[in-house]
Amino acid sequence: MDDDAQFFTDHPDRYARIREPRLQLVKLPSRQVKYVPEMNGEFWSLGEHDKSRRSILVWRVPPSHPLYDSKEIKILRVPFLRFSDETIADTDAVLLPILHQIMTDQAQKQGV
Predict the structure, then answer these.
(1) Global pTM?
(2) Do residues 52 and 83 touch, judged by C-beta distance below 8 A?
(3) Which residue among 12, 32, 38, 42 is buried most deeply as judged by most CB within 10 Å?
(4) DSSP state string for 31-85
(5) Is 86 in a helix, a strand, or coil?
(6) Which among 86, 92, 14 is positioned nearest to 52, based on CA atoms?
């Protein structure tokens, strides 16, 4: 079980969390193995930025969602850039509206 799934198992009342990106071990096509920052490509798509501003919003699919599966925890990870001096409280009351706004904006961009 990964760390995010373990977090939601330990905190069943929570549906969102914010955390720093971690290093991940990846295998390259040349069969080399190295550590790279988590979601590095997704952060590139957000434009030029200071790497210290990177965070990952993690959302657990609630029971009311069509993709909910009672046998496993479904998790969505969203790259997020904080303002340079911004601190974001790690509570559902703060994070869920941010995630909702990100998803709404993306749906409107794609014409859904």
Answers:
(1) 0.81
(2) no
(3) 38
(4) S-EEEEETTHHHHHTT-S--GGGEEEEEEEPPTTSTT-BTTB--EEEEEEE--TT
(5) coil
(6) 86
Nearest to 60 by CA among 96, 104, 21: 96
Q: End-to-end CA distance of the chain: give it in Å, rounded.
A: 33
pLDDT tens column, 23-35: 989 898 999 999 9
Q: pLDDT confidence of 59, banded at 50, 70, 90? A: very high
Joined together, the tokens standing for residue 93 give 């009351």
Strands 16-19 and 23-27: unpaired
Give the start-to-end residue ranges of the domains of the chain: 3-19+50-109
Q: Residues 64-93: pLDDT tens digits? A: 888 788 788 889 999 888 887 788 999 999
> Which positions ≥6 away from 50 have C-beta within 8 Å?
84
Of 49, 59, 60, 45, which Cα lies nearest the Cα of 98?
Answer: 59
Q: What length does the chain have?
A: 112
Identity at 101, one-letter amino acid code: Q
